[in-house]
User: Fold these one by one.
Assistant:
Number 1:
Amino acid sequence: MTILGLILLPVLLLILRQNLVLILFSVAAYIHLFFGDGVLEYIIEDMWIGLDKEILLSIPLFILCGNVMTRGRIAERLIRVVAIVSSPLPGGLAVATILSCAVFSAISGSSAVTLLSVGAVMYPALVKAGYDKKFALGALASGGTLGVVIPPSIPLILFGIVTETSITDLFKAGVVPGLILTGIMAVYALYRNRSIPRQRIDFRELAACLRDGIWSLLMPVLLLGGIYSGYFSPTEAAAVALGYALIVEIFIHRDMQAQDFYGIAISTAKLLGALYPLLAVAMSLNLLLTAEQVPQDLTNWVASQVESPLTFLLAINLLLLIVGCFLDINAGILILAPILLPLALNFGIDPVHLGIIMVVNLEVGFLTPPIGINLMISMTAFNERFKLICQSVIPFIAIILVVVALVTYFPRLSLFLTT
Amino acid sequence: ETKLKYATSAPVKTPWVAHANQVAAAVQEATGGSVKIDVFPGSQLGNEQDVIRQVARGRVQMGAFSNTAASLIVPEISLLAAPYIWDNVAQADCALDNHMDAVFQDRFKEMDLVFLGWTEVGQMGYASAKPIESLTELSGKKVRVAPSKTSSLTAESVGANSVMLPITEVASALQTGLVDSADLPGLAFTSLGIGKIAPHWIATNHSHQVGVVLMSRKVWSKLTPEEQTQMQAARVDPTILRKQVRGAEKMMFGKFEEAGGRIVHPEGEELDRWKQAGEQARLALVKELGDKGAAVYEQIQQAKRACSS
Amino acid sequence: MTVIAYAVTALSLLADILGRELFSQGIDGAPRFAVYAAIIAGFLGMSLAAEDDSHIRPQVFDYLVPPLFEKMFSRLADAVSALIYGGLGYLAVGFVRVTYENGDIAPVLDWPIWPVQLVLPYTFFSISLRYLVITVAPSLKRPDTSLGREIR
Ligand code: NA
Ligand code: NA
């Protein structure tokens, strides 16, 4: 009976046209009432506990920074340099698209920001240069997902928060899988566009672009260099990135004015206004499940069903692929990481490795319907048909799946840079 | 039957979780099964700073907490971890068991908590990746401190540049050089494998860390008087855990040295320098804690006198 | 207010880093301070998001309502939202009251936490009030813009 109510309540609220946040709150309240201790104030308490975390600071700051870079022209200047450098390759602009996504990923923590920033410049350029529209869409939608694998990465930060794993280690572990993904995607871009003629590098233009883009190029160096040489922690890197982006856009490039920050902060606040309650409710449900020993029971059950770590990893892969179809990567991490962690530890899998498996695996979810965020963004940003975009990402999904397998079964790819 | 959730941040297969399980078993036996305790190790119910507040609110029934977490509720308890506050470990054990026990029972009671006993975490020292072997060398360096006043005041008293970091970030921070050194409990340093990154350890033993087992007073008052008496009687002798922790500390440092780690034991004048700096930090801490802090500090001094005679 | 809160978040972190790396003296409570600023900004953002209806709203069952009753139903939906947000506000008051009574202090900063937590009931009640107003006076409602808000 109570289970039935758990299903009927969200349906009723959907009919009553309530927003997702309120539906989640109501479901949490229902669970607290009928499965927990019956004290509804705990929802608010969990919400507070969930948000009162220093590591969480990096999320609003990275989103702010991403919005600053999209408003200004840091991305555009960066891409111009990459495009000239790749021009002597056949299909140079295609390769440049992938590389730009990778370089931009090293300063952005999210997939959407990477896709939007690179896409805004590259999509018109690719179409104008005669590249296949389908390829261009696929490359951008998929290249954008590098944003969550190559550090800094918001999903990796979330994984670190909910599993209490070192975020610096997670970031380090993301580097090699990110580079492998970039490499394979770039090779595919080269092969697919091999008929498009090469161009000579115009060195005078290159010099001009470098002069123009030097501050943009320095940004990934500053961020990753700063983290790995100990000037600041990954959380602090977000503040540094934001500070740097603002100074460059306002005082050096003068592509933005100080008062623009107002609008950017407001739009960031609205995005987070939607993300924060989701985060809070997810954390609350996690705690409730743990207190009711659901993950513990699940661990014991799985441990009794699955014998080898290999079968377990395969099961994780399949689970995450299915989950990725329906859930946003952040929600997927928040809900599943705490449940999978004890299972993984049971099979001797390193928490850092699990984090990378989860992120690369859920990365596919950006590109799969029904809820594929990058598909939706591409549809609105490039004004193309949903079906065309879905088809365009198929070869890239295949590439990511290959990397999922590599990352899952060769832990050293993720772990050899960490301790 | 009453079911109680017992939270601890200690990871499974450590002496602390073994201690929690002993407490659970002893209570279950003493109450004839009418009170059952489920242990949630490894911060499963949240990090200890959050959980200790939930115990005060009655949501989580009980748990074991470090000095850092406990001082969020009763700030004066940070004095127990103040640098060089005890002359030796035996004095500390005696003072805690025979004198400070009652003091903190009262203080926790005011905060809606029932104090059920001490736990042992061990001695603190400084770890570093590059050789840092004396107070002078540590001075001016970036040092990780725990999120507590005691830890930061202590590091600042030797002239270090304190950087507050959670324990999960310590290994990476030492590796990247975000910090040059880290203030850590010896057993955490060795058992978390930080020794591989930071093979230098100064055994300053500047702080003796003890934790507390606490229970929610709201939950406690719902138990029958017999159950309350039975639970009090089931308190696990703190000397068992102390012995285990100190034994493990010694063994793990042995392994650390075997693997090429280097331990410096400050002696003579060098030790005096550490102690002088520690005294400064201690007085600063007492000052920050106000009247209640001064009162507890005085009680500690009395306990020390009683335990050294 | 939201903008100031974000500026404070970033500036306090940057000041801590610069102090530590350049002047060998970080600011102990800076990250804590930044966390509270970010929480305030996040909650104010929640009410901003509610103000222009930009919270994600699944519209799967919208077709169930016959066009004739559309206006009435939309008012009912707003009334329910007002009610739920009001309930959250009520719970938040209880939560802040316990924090106040227990005298919970912020780690490191040693400040009482409850003033910061006031942003919770404030946010919930102000959103609730807004829904109440448009239930009574639907003409004040802005056009629905919740389409395509999944973008993050
Ligand atoms: Na990234
Ligand atoms: Na998907």
Number 2:
Amino acid sequence: MSSQTPASPDQTPARPLVRFSKVTKRYGEHTVLDDLDLDVAAGEKVTIIGPSGSGKSTVLRILMTLETLTDGLIEIDGEPLWHERRGDQLKPASEAHLRKMRGQLGMVFQQFNLFPHMSVQRNLTEAPRQVLGLSRKEAQSRATELLERVGLADHANKYPGQLSGGQQQRVGIARALMMRPRVMLFDEPTSALDPELVGEVLHVIRTLADEHDLTVLMVTHEMSFARRFSDRVCFFDKGRIHEQGTPEQIFTDPREARTREFLRAVLEPDV
Amino acid sequence: MEWISYLGPLWQGAWVTIQLTLYSTVLGALLSFAAGIGKRSSIWPLRILSAVYVEVFRGTSLLVQLFWLYFALPLAGNAIGIDLRLDPVVAGVLALGLNIGAYGAEVVRGGLKSVSQQQLEAAQALNFTPRQTLWRISLPQAIPEMLPAFGNLAVQNLKDTALVSLISLGDLAFRAEQVRNFTQDSATVYTLVLLMYFGMALVLAGMIKLLEMSVGRWRTVSR
Amino acid sequence: MLFAIAWDASSSWSLAVSILPILLKGLWVTLQATVVGFLLAMAFGLVLAGLKSVPLKIVRWPAKLVSEFLRDTPLLVQLFFLYYVLPDYGLLLPAFMTGALALGLQYSAYMSEVYRGGLEAVGSGQREAARALNLTPVRTFTHIVLPQAVPRIIPASGNYLVSIMKDVPVLSVVTVLELFGVARIIGDRTFNYLVPLSMVGALYLILTILAAWAVRTLDQRLPKHGIALR
């Protein structure tokens, strides 16, 4: 990979890697995303924070094509995700198009979602072999390397059920990285973990994101991690980005009353 | 010790029963998966076909199905000029397999439904095709769930084979009737035959138990 | 009754129309056998379930064995056993009653499991709460456990009622003239099995679809939290 420096949020790049333009998502009467605009530059690490039910996870799920959008446009590297260009018109995407676009994305789930019937090794190699057509040898050497990076080289032949939550999530991260995605999506990766296991997972995310110069979009409740890790923090409320800026700015000098309120509630809970 | 002399012909019949059970259970299993997966297909004619098959064969009586295939189907064939006369063995295996397959289809459908949405999302995020997801993620997780119900259906099927004696197939129930006719020793003959069916059912159930233990190993491991 | 009725076999349609009345008479016998068999299964099943839950091993184990045996052996052979062996011991039952008895025995094993499942689904927390409130065991059973178990027992029993109905054709082998037996005789006489057997299939389909709908409706109507006794 090239050694470009991550773009800082105030110098907007010519073409963002991910762009949401006026994206709306409704379930019946309920509006989850409301005219959302969001750009993520290549190599940028963006964290989404906000109260539950604010639509944070929906952003990731729509991007991963797990849920459809109601209105608006999402582009990855200039190419529409949910649409295809036919002439100068935009048509709903075919399954083939969605598959092509999905290949650029990787996702880490809150509940890990490892395949319980496969060994750790198989969890990592199955998709590269079946979907990317890698040879067994290629897939295994890639898996060995990644398992070493996440500190689980000794656990390759265990089943997910034999691992701790923190270990499972590290496998989840390695599994997503096996596909060499351009953008990594983390959907509350530590919310399901016991408190003492959170650190090991965040450490792995941080190391790998730096090493692989990943573009990251993460939803999290770990405020101190968001502050140290992100290039930009977006505060979500009621399906919109209520406020965004550098971690310094958001955490020390939030402009909006709603942001201040949320951060106070999270950082200094009234006991 | 009169009863020992009954064992020869009864054993002959039991062997036919075992074969019938084996063939029709295999056929039924194939049909179960075909129709159970078909019911969840994205192609609507497949969905309709699977649903109709399941409804018709679950909704009518096995004995009616057996007689329809053996006695009525040739007449239907006659009407359109095709020879659809079936050998009793073929009619028996077909009726048993079609019948048990319709019940099995519901088991397969239920098993596939039990695979969590999260697993399917993980598969989609890794860009598996729907077919790969079915074969590599859903079915391997669903089959251990299905096995106990399949075991019950296999025993049900073994019991149902007795009905083929009514189209004069020489299975255990048929031989029993022959021996009884010949000896008039009803109590002994039928006690023996019931015990033989019971023994076969226990062996069959035991085999399914062994299968259950071998396919779901990942479910029993823990830290 | 069959000998008295003439049918018109000049075409499939006229045959179908002319045999419908006798088929419906057969259907009536099928329904009767279903209901009697089901009532017997409910009664025998209750006895089996009771014996299977007796604390004494010497009672419990034989009950379990009998239950397994009844469930794992073919209805047809059980029926022949009753039909040929009972008279040897001086018990002469009409064919219809022998058939209903066979259905009742075979399905008693299934019904005993239905009762057990329904009672076990009422959590031990309920029994503990009743004990904490100092209710008598009898009152606990009649007012706490049973009302919560019944909504689970009814739909499962309904499914077995339908299964019994589909097994009634087996009774034709001991000369019970239920729906299928009637159709078979018509087939033997007219050499046209296609029309009567297809009609039997269609009638069964209608009945099972109606029954499935009834079980579903009943299941939805039953209060999930239980039926309160006065």
